[in-house]
Amino acid sequence: MTARRARVRIPVVGRYITPLGEEFASVEALSGIVLLLTAAAALVWANSPWSPSYTSFWGYDLTVGRGRLSITESLGGWVNDAFMVLFFFVVGLEIKRELVAGELRDPARARLPVAAALGGMVVPALIFFAWNPTGPSSRGWGIPMATDIAFALGVLAVLGPRVPRGLKLFLLTLAIVDDIGAIVVIAIFYSEGIAIPWLAGALAAVAAIVVLRRLGPDHPIVYVAPGFLVWLCVLESGVHATIAGVVLGLLTPISSRRGRPVLDQIEHRLHPWTSFGIVPLFALANAGVALSAGTLDAAASSSITWGVVTGLVLGKIVGVVGVTTVGSRLRLGRLPEGVGFRQVLGLGALTGIGFTVSLFIAELSFGGASLSEAKIGILGASILAAAIGTATLVLHAPRRAARAAPP
Length: 407
Known about the structure:
This protein is mostly helical.
C-alpha cells in the first residue's frame, strides 16, 4: 500500500475507503442508506393496497432477441441473472486484487481472519441443517452463510472512532473469504442440470479472452463481446449466470498496460453503478414480502425461518468468535492492535447481517411460502444482528477509551 494512494479495498460492492475512514464514511454509509431505503420501499410496496402490482411487475416476462436467439426472463429474473452479473464482476475484481496485492497475499496475516470466515460459514450452515435435516427445506442451508458487508461496514462507519481501525481491516479480510465461499456454494450447489455443450462454449469464450490478453489489447471495449458470450453460455449451461461475472473479474489484469491501470479504471467506472444502482435495484426486486398476520404466523412456526435466524445470529457469533479465540490462543495468527474479545464479539454479531447475498441464495433455494419464510428470517435476523453488534461495540467503547487514556 503506497503513501500516494493508500486505501483499503472492500469486496462485494467494489468500493474503497481510506485508512482514515473519510471515504469509508461517505461512500459506505451513503450506499448502505440507499440499500436500506430501497429494501424498505419494497416492503411498503408489497404490503400496500398496490401489493398485487409488486408481484405482477417483477413477474412480467421480457424477451430479448428473436426466435432461437431470444432469451425470456421475468423482470426480476433479469435483475438476478443479468444485472447482478456486474455485481459479481466487481466481486471478482476485488478478490483478484486481494489475492495478488492485498491482505490475502500474505498467509501469515490472512490465516486468522480466513479461519474466522470459514467458521462463520460452516457453523451457520450446520445450525440450519439442525432445523432442516432433510426434505426440500434443507436446500436453504447456504442462506445463513452469507454476510452483507455493505451493512456491516456501514455500522462500523456510524460508530466511527469507537471501533479500532484494526477491527475494520479484520472484517474486510474476513469478508473477502466470505465472498469466495458464497461464490463456491452458488456455483457448486445452486446450479442445476448442467448442459455440457453450453459449458464448453463458456470455456471456449474464456480461452478467447485469455488469448486476447496475451495479444495485448487493453481497452475494455475489446472484451465486451467475448464477455457477453461467457455470460450467455454460462446462463444456458445451468451454472448460475453470476459466476460468469466472477470469472471475468478474475481474468482482469491488475497491472498497468501501456500506462493504464486496467482493473482500477474498470472498477472506478462500475462501482457507483453497482453500489447505488444494481444492488438497490436487487433489493427492490427481492426484499418485498407480505407481512400479513397469516404470513408472520407461518414464519413463526417455520423451521426455515428459525434456521435462518439462529444460523445468522447465533451461528455467526459462535463461528467467528469461537474460531478467532481458539486460533489466537493456538498462535494461528494475532488479533490487530487494540482489538480484544469484546470487539470480536461485536464483529461476529455484525457478520450476521445477511441481506444481499442471503436474499440471492434464498431466491435460488425456494419459491412460494418457503421463500417468504426465508426472507422474513433474513430481515429479522439482520435487524437483530445489527442491534447486538452495535450495542456490544458501543458499550465497550468507553472502557477501551478509559484504558487508552494517559495516567
